[in-house]
Amino acid sequence: MLKGKKIVLGITGGIAAYKAAELTRALVKEGAHVKVIMTKNATEFISPLTMQTLSNNIVYTEMYLPQSQYDMAHITLAEFADAFVIAPATANIIGKIASGIADDLLSTTIMAADKLTLICPAMNDRMLANPIVQENINKLKNHKYVIMKSGVGELACKTIGAGRLPEIPEIVEEIEKLLTPKSLAGEKILITAGPTEEPLDPVRFITNLSSGKMGYALARVAHRQGAQVTLITGPANLPLPDVEVVIKVRTAQEMHKAVIDNYKKATVVIKAAAVADYRPKVFASEKIKKDDKPRSIELVRNPDIIAEIGKNKTNIVLVGFAMETRDLLANAHEKLEKKNMDLIVANSLREEGSGFQTDTNKITIIDRAGDVQSMPVMTKIEAAEKILERVAGLMKKKGGKKK
Ligand code: PMT
Questions:
Q1: Alpha-carbon distance 308 to 306, whole Å?
Q2: Which of 30, 90, 198, 305 yields a CA-CA distance of 20 to 30 A from 110?
């Protein structure tokens, strides 16, 4: 999503300035063009050469250059940017912007800019809590600057408190969110993700290889596109996406209850979870002890959650997945019809870069009109974008949003 986006990164003079190097790397990795402005104080903490090397661009530090190099940077950078990011943002730059002061290249460029601007405060906790700083932050919010909440933890001065620069992936996600068109605004999307675990006894369970990556990518992208997202997740060892509601479940029966309790409020339901079709009939309350006899486990059926929604479906868009090891498209077609889905996303364990645990997927989207859209291997985030593009198309056709 950041591919080709133009970002001007302002770095001010705080100890977290060194983290701007990592941020630049992450943005460039996502395909963004990054140009850096450093204040004089920032150059005390990190070298312009580091930022030049990581951004692949010259770094702007001076307002006044010799005639031969003067390029009106405060205007050209303001025009160049799709978004401005100030990270770390000191109390000083926050105060200057709030007061309309333009006395160096960064503050002058910000004054000349009318683009989305994300400000990531980082400072000592008492400085952050200072009512004047808070007043300035609130003033900036009222003027449509986006202010990220600082992290809480150990600060450079060794105290514990609020004032840390937010984690780099959080800043990148916030930039993604700012730059994503809100094509799903007003939609309420319920997404399931991850595996389920079906316990045999207190130490053993039956599960599958789902990591939750596909479902979490869908949740993340839907949220970026302005939807209100409820994520119902089985046990997954991943950072939770920033969405409105997260419900953690373990078993298929718990997932069933969570989905049934919540899906009627949704306009879209997407079932990316790998739900166990069966569970052990008996749960042994104590650890099962071994002996010399062979053992078998009797299994009983779990509820088919998506089939139940499909049966009672009214005005929602219902999207399912099909994970197959053979006859991918035939099986997917059958599930689409039988479970009354609007779209099915087929992925095969047999295809390179596809399926469980990978960061990529190779998906085929099939709709009720029989249209089959096969796609190359792409990241799960890109796959989520493709799926949600189709969902947005269907929502447009259906018209009307639940209030
Ligand atoms: O989590 P990752 O590691 O990123 O892997 C992603 C994925 C492979 C898990 C994902 O892309 C995927 O294919 N999810 C669905 C896996 C699956 O259970 O497929 P299925 O063909 O068995 O089920 C068909 C549909 O019925 C699915 O939408 C499933 O959520 C749903 N289902 C299945 C069983 C059940 N009891 N209730 C259900 O609702």
A1: 5
A2: 30
Q: What pLDDT was estimated at residue 43?
A: 98
Instruction: Name the residue type at position 235.
Output: P
On whether the CB atoms of residues 327 and 311 are closer than 8 A, the answer is no
For 188-398, CATH number out of 3.40.50.300, 3.40.50.1110, 3.40.50.1980, 3.40.50.10300 equals 3.40.50.10300
Q: What distance in angstroms lies between residue 273's CA and the mean position of ligand 1's atoms? A: 5
Give the pLDDT mean for 246-266: 98
Backbone φ and ψ of 374, nearest 5°: -95, 135
List the beta strands (DSSP E) in 18-82: 33-38, 59-60
Which of 221, 278, 306, 326 is the pocket-test mutation for ligand 1 (most atoms within 8 Å of CB)? 306
Q: Helix or strand or coil: residue 64?
A: coil
Whether residue 120 lies in the annotated active site: no
Q: How large is the average pLDDT for residues 379-393?
A: 97
Quote the pTM value.
0.91
How much distance in Å is there from the Cα of 321 to the middle of ligand 1?
5
Do the domains at 6-179 and 188-398 have one common CATH topology?
yes
* Consecutive H or E run containing 246: strand 245-248
Each domain of the chain, given as residue ranges in start order, spans 6-179, 188-398
State the average pLDDT over residues 74-83.
Answer: 92
Q: What is the CATH code of the structural domain delimited by 6-179?
A: 3.40.50.1950
Which of 271, 311, 348, 359 is the best mutation target for the ligand 1 pocket, counting ligand atoms within 8 Å of the beta carbon and taking the most?
Answer: 271
Identify whether 294 is preceded by a cis peptide bond (ω within 30 of 0).
no
Pocket of ligand 1 (CB under 6 A): 194, 210-214, 252, 271-275, 277, 302, 304-306, 320-323, 335, 347, 355-357
Strands 268-271, 317-324: parallel, antiparallel or unpaired by DSSP?
parallel
3 C-alpha to center of ligand 1: Å?
30
Question: Mind listing the pLDDT tens digit for each residue in 174-188?
Answer: 999 999 999 999 999
